[in-house]
Amino acid sequence: MKEYALCFFSGTGNSLTVARWLAEDLGAEAPEPMTAFVGPRATRLSAETLLMVFPLYFWGLPELVARFAAETDLDDVRRIVAVFTRGGAPGGPSGQLRKLLNARGKSLAGCHPVNMPANYTPFYDIPPAAKQERIRERARARTRAAAALIREGKTKIADINAFLSVLCPAVNRLWRRRLPDRARRFRVSAACTSCGLCARICPVENISYENGRPVWGNRCQNCLACLHFCPVGAIDFGGKTARRGRYRCAGIGVDDLAVQQTAGKTSGLID
User: Fold this and answer.
1) Domain segments of the chain as ranges
2) Structural fold of domain 179-267
3) pLDDT of 152-162, one tens digit each?
4) Could you tell me the pTM of the whole model?
5) For 143-148, which contacts have Cβ atoms below 8 Å and span 24 or more sequence positions?
């Protein structure tokens, strides 16, 4: 049994970057997409410590991460630690993860936040390049500190206060229930070249093409990878993103994120 298994979900690359940093600091194998471990043909996990690395979405768990915690075969995993990225928003997933894992006879041994450049452009613009670099530098230091605690077997869980512990899961549940409808807010301008990149990068293969134009289905994760990676900026979400920038996490390309969709097809998560 290997010492560490790192599993990630990442929309724009922030969480994949942190997962790679953790693998480097812990001397672990390369991170694997969570999509490989959910589905009827899912790969079996086996490790002393499982590290789940993912972004904070609407104050809690992304839908795919909740499925991973609820459905993945964890019988051969002895210790589970979460490391989540966020853009400085309040909230945290520790309560949700505890509930999902406890229902399966497992416990959460650690939960560590790492702030990365915010990029949910329906709400705000992305930070300037210089500020992004400063945030990344602090994030790298924070990841090293988390890795040291994980290596030493120390338990540290980033909890939230009593008010947020009730509010945040409620907001997150409401957002997740509305995910199928949120995909209807995507718009494509005349600048679209029908290159197919948006369909390729979607972690759950939610984008198809009709008459040369992308069309979104009903299993959107709201990760906005399609919006940020469109090479001509033709994709918008809602009415405000057209006036805001696009985010590319340094060192992360389309191929790095497209493995999530490939793994999902292999596992049977994506039909």
Assistant:
1) 2-175, 179-267
2) Alpha-Beta Plaits (3.30.70)
3) 998 888 777 77
4) 0.96
5) 143/18, 143/21, 143/22, 143/25, 143/83, 143/114, 144/21, 144/25, 146/22, 146/83, 146/110, 146/112, 146/114, 147/21, 147/22, 147/25, 147/26, 148/25
